[in-house]
Prior knowledge:
The chain is α+β, with helices and mostly antiparallel strands. Helix content is about 25%, strand content about 30%. Strand 2 and strand 3 (about 25-30) form a beta hairpin. This is HicA protein.
Amino acid sequence: MLRKIQGIEVIEGAGSKVAFYKNESELSIHRPHPSKESLRYRIKLVREFLIEIGEV
């Protein structure tokens, strides 16, 4: 989802870490594993990031 937003830079880190950047804002999280479900706190972080960059 975040990869489709215009202007988002994605940096793949070691292991499951991934960081998203837009302007001065940054979101750094780990991909869910071994299951594909995201935990509630990760969803909250993504939502807060989207609000911060003006996408929500």
